[in-house]
Amino acid sequence: MDKILSLSEGGDGPGELQQYLSSLSNDQLIKVLTNAALKGKNIGATIKGIFKGSPHNDPKGSGRRLLLYQHFIPLCESGDLQSEVAADIIGLLMLEAPNLSGACLAEVASHFVEAIKSGKMASGKSLELFPSVLTALAACESLSFGKGNYWYSPLSSALARDVPLSPEELQFLLEKVLRMFGKLELQEVPPLIYQLLLLSAKGCKKQVLDGIIGYFNEQDLQQKDEQDMELEVQAIPKDQLRHVEGTAILHIVFAIRLDHDLGREFLKSLKTHHSDNLCPFGVALLLSVARIQRYEDQVRGGLHPPPPDIHITQLSKCSTVISFYFHIFLIHSGCLCVQYRSGASPLIIPPLCPISVFGWDHVTQGLVQLGFFLMDTFGPKPGPFGKPAESGPSGAARTPNQQACLLGRQVLLEGFKMHEPIRGEILEQVLNRLVTKTASPVHHYIDLFSDIVVSAPMILLESASKVTETFDNLSYLPLATVQGLLKAVQPLLKVSMSLKDSLILVLRKAMFSSQLDGRKSAVTGFLLLLKNFKVLGSLASSQASQGISSSQIQVDVHSRYNSAANEAFCLEILSGLRRCLGQQADVRLMLYEGFYDVLRRNSQLASSIMQTLLSQLRRYYEPEQDLMPPVKLEPCITAQGDQVFLQEPLGHLLSCTVHSLLWLQSQRPLARPNDSDDEEAEDDEEGGYKSELMAILDSVTRRLVKSELEDFELDKSAEFSTASSVGVKNSIYAVLVMGVYEVLLEYNFIKANYSKSGLEELLELFQRYQKLAEILKEKSGKGRTSAKPPRSLLSMGFVSKLLTTLFRDSTLSREEGLSVLRSSPDFLRYALAVALQKIQQLEDSGHTDGPDGHAPDKAFGFLCDLTGVLMWRYTNIPGAVEAGGKKEKRCSLSQMCLEGLLRIFTTCTQRYPDRTAQLLSTMTTEPNADDITEISFFYIRQFQRSLFNQLSGLEEEFNSKEAQLLISILSVLSRQLEPSSQQFVSMITWTVKICKETSFEDIAFTKGLLSLLFGLHALYKSPVSLMLELCQDIHSQMGDIDQVRCVLSLPIKRFHHKPFILLILAQADKVLDEVDWLIAKKKADRPSEGPLTAPPQDPVEKAMTVQLGTLLTALNELVQTALLPGGGTDTLLRALSRTYTTLTTLVKYSPSLVQWVSHRVNVSLLQVRLSGSHLTPQCYSFITFVQAKLLRETKAIPNLIFSIEQYEKFLITLSKKSKVNLMQYMKLSTSRDFRINAATLEAALQEQDATQQV
């Protein structure tokens, strides 16, 4: 070392130093340097001397320089050197790095890379040298290294930005970096992502984004697996991972703001590979990008569903949610569901809400926008003519739109509970939609608001001012919105005095609103308050008339209840509601319908409510016992000029009074066994109005039995025309009297307690009702096809009890009395008709009139009771043994029972889809009653036996209507079977057997049977094979278009084929829907870039090919069939046009795959052959046949010709791209939508010949 120092400091020049260094071997030089470095003495001078004696243009000198770098890099990493010594060494090496040759720089860089890959960079002290090496390497104009011009990819992307890279080198570098993600510490990932995003400016943007998203997706899956295994210690803490993901999202969004090409590549990648990128991290990134104004519309365009008029093949543009739609679509497509089991899960967004609390503030706003976007876009739409549609079924969401709307609701609810900054915005937007969307259904927003109130009431009270502002608009909102909003806000009113006082003030103002809906809203609000503020104390009824302002009521929210305050509050409301008894009939009707529920919830208000009803009833009761009729009808109507309106719904008033009285009577014996003095006084008061009411009801019943219709001026001579005021008045009177009759029927049945005399009086009352009903039906039905009967006032609970008693009660003590009613077929028919009406009302609106009609659980209980009695009646008393059965035009009791069962099953599947097994289990004691497949098949077998008995008899005894009802019931119950179960296979086998063996020529029944068969095939496998068989049968029976004799010989039989042809073509549309959906799905999934490798054979495409090929064969049979004009000809032409459109779409989709992999053509040669050599020529022959038969213009023909020509056009294009001659099966036709008139042509030719001869 001393020799090197002396020669370096001497003035003789570097020649002698070079000579000395050349005399040393590499081992000797390394030994000298190692000793100097370990001692820390003069190491810097020694290194400088070696550099001085090693010129870079000399091969030996260049080798010694490289030796210094190769030796000192691992020595500094070893930790044997002092920190100051190592720093001096690295500093000197950095200064000399620009003087290294290109080959030496490449060697040093390779040495660094290998050391890093092998994990030898323990301390990282030498890494400070790496950037200088790379910088010097980038400055080299050319580099000869190894076998040719080559540069080894560096690891540090931060420095590689300044290094010129070819696309292949850049891709290689990025692959290396992305593979290192899993080996880095989690905290080191965000800086590396930042550098990668900067490096993406050179290219490979998609690779960078996909790699980052894929890495975090793998981490999320690993977290989920560890959570499923319930590991106590996780490899990566969840909160740490979420924070890192949030930082990465910030880096990516910032880069996209600066680099628009990166943003476009992200959206493009999302559309083409949405199933891979729709992970929690990918969706969070999408929501963050959506906040950038430049990309907001593009992101929403990817989420937005197709407009109604868009063609199905354009659905690929909506690629972000197409997997969601496709997932739901497969549920309803049995044949494709078997073939397709993959796809992105639609339930990836709700987990973002809890994840986003880890500092993802930039994501939460996007979640809010997404939630409202889903609810606005996929929520229920207005009904026809701009009227708000009724609320949907209360069951689970089934359709894609319903599930997407539910998804948005879940996102907003979770966001409200977890993110304080966005609570105000969510609540404000929800309430704004309730106020502004008056022409659209808003029940989904009401459900969201109700969920918020239930899950976070105290949090919501912080924004109580927004709710108060909404109260000011109550009188202007639709009644359904007011009812839902006030019902949802009830829990808040019990804990917030200010909110309750604000609502009361608004309702008081609305009570005197000039708008009828405003007053109805006020009644709704007050009734809800009465039902929810329960009174547990007692208060004399004399105080009910005292005016108590809401400011005087103080409710202690910390105590369990404040009885006196609640009672005073409720009595004040009742005092205000009494004023409604002088308003329009609609307001009074709401009051009467609500009093019964209030009474049941607040029994301490019974005295005040019953006194109010009694006072109102006295106005229309005739106290003179000798006068007929016993009720005054004149005060029940009002006239404005020539128009007559209902003023008092007398039947509903009487119904409310009767039901309230009956409920009080049923509760009083159980109320208080030990009466005190105060309670005895209250009982005396109760006994006063009870006895008076019972006397009134008995008097009205007795006198109505004796009254004739002439007493009401409603006999057969009365006018019921709606064109005159007298006719309108008589119609109103008739409906009022019928309502009174029905209420008294229910009251007297309960009062009679099965006594013979009481039920005889009830039957006489019914006969009066029936006579009036027949007159009203006869008079009002003139000039119209059908007269809809007025809605019955019997409660659904009473109807259920009545039918059970009439059909199944075998108690000996009741036999004599019940025989009176059972001997009247008209009464039995009436009871069944009312039951059908109630069930239909429940199916349509979700509730029924009368007590407990708005309670879903009780309504379901009534359905269960009715199901049991109707099933028993139908299975135990066949319709053939009923008196009159076949001779009467009206349907039998058994048929009415069957219709009731059909309506019950339909209602249950729509309104209570999760309780169908419970409904069916009420009728059996089968051990597997909880298994929906087992219990459904148990009843299916019973109905199958009934249908088989129908078909086993003579054709003259065949009851077509009953058979159609049985088919409909089988269709509903078969949907409850699991398609993969043995019971479902048995159902299909039985249906096919019935179809083959049935010989009755009943069009409606046969059509229903085929519809059932198609429905079963659609759930189990494709119906195209069945369609082909039917088309072949129709073709063989109707004959070919060239066989004129056959066409003319079977006119009647051929005419009956029209409904079946329409049914087949409807199924063809469904098959084409499936094919179009699959094409859209495959278009969305196709790769936009990547290696040109052949994909494996897709079973989905194979299923699509088979379906389409069979459909083409079936249509080929139909186009050769001699159809009569009007026998589905136009529908067939439209189906053919759509089929060619679908083929065109498939052909247009194939070129994109041909570009992807040149040797694969995605259109089946079988389809081309079937469409070209078989179907297309027959289509032109069929067009000629139709033109000859119809002799009129139809738009379907030119549309079909255009579709065929478009298909041939794109098929030629595909042939050129795929280099496969697909046109060998096609014969281009010259047919157009015109015909050559042979006579005119002949005349023109003769005229031309004559001219030439002259």
TrEMBL record:
<protein>
    <submittedName>
        <fullName>FA complementation group I</fullName>
    </submittedName>
</protein>
<dbReference type="InterPro" id="IPR029310">
    <property type="entry name" value="FANCI_HD1"/>
</dbReference>
<dbReference type="Pfam" id="PF14675">
    <property type="entry name" value="FANCI_S1"/>
</dbReference>
<dbReference type="Pfam" id="PF14678">
    <property type="entry name" value="FANCI_S4"/>
</dbReference>
<dbReference type="InterPro" id="IPR029315">
    <property type="entry name" value="FANCI_S2"/>
</dbReference>
<feature type="domain" description="FANCI solenoid 2">
    <location>
        <begin position="363"/>
        <end position="527"/>
    </location>
</feature>
<feature type="domain" description="FANCI solenoid 4">
    <location>
        <begin position="1028"/>
        <end position="1242"/>
    </location>
</feature>
<feature type="domain" description="FANCI solenoid 1">
    <location>
        <begin position="161"/>
        <end position="256"/>
    </location>
</feature>
<dbReference type="Pfam" id="PF14680">
    <property type="entry name" value="FANCI_HD2"/>
</dbReference>
<dbReference type="InterPro" id="IPR026171">
    <property type="entry name" value="FANCI"/>
</dbReference>
<feature type="domain" description="FANCI solenoid 1">
    <location>
        <begin position="64"/>
        <end position="148"/>
    </location>
</feature>
<dbReference type="InterPro" id="IPR029305">
    <property type="entry name" value="FANCI_S1-cap"/>
</dbReference>
<dbReference type="InterPro" id="IPR029312">
    <property type="entry name" value="FANCI_HD2"/>
</dbReference>
<dbReference type="Pfam" id="PF14679">
    <property type="entry name" value="FANCI_HD1"/>
</dbReference>
<feature type="domain" description="FANCI solenoid 1 cap">
    <location>
        <begin position="1"/>
        <end position="53"/>
    </location>
</feature>
<dbReference type="Pfam" id="PF14676">
    <property type="entry name" value="FANCI_S2"/>
</dbReference>
<dbReference type="InterPro" id="IPR029308">
    <property type="entry name" value="FANCI_S1"/>
</dbReference>
<dbReference type="GO" id="GO:0070182">
    <property type="term" value="F:DNA polymerase binding"/>
</dbReference>
<dbReference type="InterPro" id="IPR029313">
    <property type="entry name" value="FANCI_S3"/>
</dbReference>
<dbReference type="Pfam" id="PF14674">
    <property type="entry name" value="FANCI_S1-cap"/>
</dbReference>
<dbReference type="InterPro" id="IPR029314">
    <property type="entry name" value="FANCI_S4"/>
</dbReference>
<feature type="domain" description="FANCI solenoid 3">
    <location>
        <begin position="793"/>
        <end position="1013"/>
    </location>
</feature>
<feature type="domain" description="FANCI helical">
    <location>
        <begin position="541"/>
        <end position="777"/>
    </location>
</feature>
<dbReference type="Pfam" id="PF14677">
    <property type="entry name" value="FANCI_S3"/>
</dbReference>
<dbReference type="GO" id="GO:0006281">
    <property type="term" value="P:DNA repair"/>
</dbReference>
<feature type="domain" description="FANCI helical">
    <location>
        <begin position="261"/>
        <end position="299"/>
    </location>
</feature>
